[in-house]
Amino acid sequence: MTKKIVVLPGDGIGPEIVAEAVKILEKFREEGLNINLEYGLIGGAAYDETGTPLPAETLEMSKQADAILLGAVGGYKWESLDISVRPEKGLLGIRSELNLFANLRPAILYPQLADASTLKPEVVAGLDLMIVRELTGGIYFGQPRGIRTLDNGEKQGFNTLVYRESEINRIGKVAFDIAAKRQGRVCSVDKANVLESTELWRETMTTLSKSYPDIELSHMYVDNAAMQLVRAPKQFDVMVTTNMFGDILSDCASMLTGSIGMLPSASLDENSKGMYEPIHGSAPDIAGQNIANPLATILSAAMMLRYTLDEASMADRIEKAVSKVLDDGLRTADIYSAGMTKVSTSEMGDAVLAAL
Length: 356
Ligand code: NAD
What we know:
Layout: E1 3-10, H1 14-30, E2 35-39, H2 44-50, H3 56-64, E3 67-72, H4 87-97, E4 102-108, H5 121-124, E5 128-134, E6 146-149, E7 155-158, H6 165-180, E8 185-190, H7 196-209, E9 216-221, H8 222-231, E10 238-241, H9 243-256, E11 264-268, E12 274-278, H10 295-307, H11 312-327, E13 330-331, E14 341-342, H12 345-355
Parallel strand pairs: 1-2, 1-3, 3-12, 5-10, 8-9, 8-10, 13-14
Antiparallel strand pairs: 4-5, 4-11, 6-7, 11-12
Bound molecules: nicotinamide-adenine-dinucleotide.
Nicotinamide-adenine-dinucleotide (NAD) is lined by residues 13, 17, 72-75, 88, 91, 260-261, 277, 280-286, 292-293, 296, 334.
């Protein structure tokens, strides 16, 4: 059956980088991959045309799709708009409407780029870890929440950290399944010594692990995990954690690699339908100049092939092609260093295509 892919280029560098990933998907289609690409508007581009950052038409086509490839949203032009119609609202809207509860954020440092990290090359060279973050529960969504005035007139802000067993189980399963395709190790990150909701998280992960005898489960408190990520990040294979801890740890992990233009991400629902996007934003400072790094978006397309389209060998080919162009010394401006060959966005995309 034909798989439907919705392409949402968005704003800033979004259209430039998405075009390079689409070139690769089109090549696979020519080789027989049964996909159909359909384009939609999101973010500032959608606001300009329709008055809303997430038009009903985009949402509807995304609901019907098997996967979504997104560029990025936002930019100076829309910064003064009311928050309800800002480009970022479109992104948050689509994530929650599609119930994308599992956020996969790999942090991979290609050995060729070890100098780009702020850490010593021997600490990070060859880093390949996957953070699985729960995305639709926890303290960002828990009720009650708000700011109230106490009897003494003082204001008090409050939020609620809640997790149900079913929510923990479903994110745990995603992490265990991914670990089964990697090195077979899951580190569950919590604060079970202080927070009851994460005490339940730890208990539930431990029970779940009994169904995965080949996976090694360990537990770590979040403060230690933050420390270990910068001390010895290569000890981790898959980390699974709550929404807020994952928000913080995944940004920390991505910076270990020093190159924001290299990192893809996926957000999945219970049926492995997913939205795939680079972790970076719309980079309005370099938009329209054909100098942005398209590799994060190209690697997001590889994740789409692996996790939604079940085409692991095509995903492998993309990842190997990226490694090959880096071996050949090709670099966009953001990862350029002396002695390498500086290339544009489209030249980088063409080089990956040729290396396939
Ligand atoms: P950003 O990630 O867009 O840019 C940060 C820096 O990294 C900039 O100097 C930029 O030029 C550079 N950069 C980012 N991606 C690059 C790439 N592929 N190649 C080369 N350089 C790259 O973050 P920001 O500047 O804080 O935000 C800009 C806009 O993007 C804002 O409107 C923000 O709200 C939005 N944003 C969107 C997303 C998203 O769509 N997922 C994520 C983060 C920020």
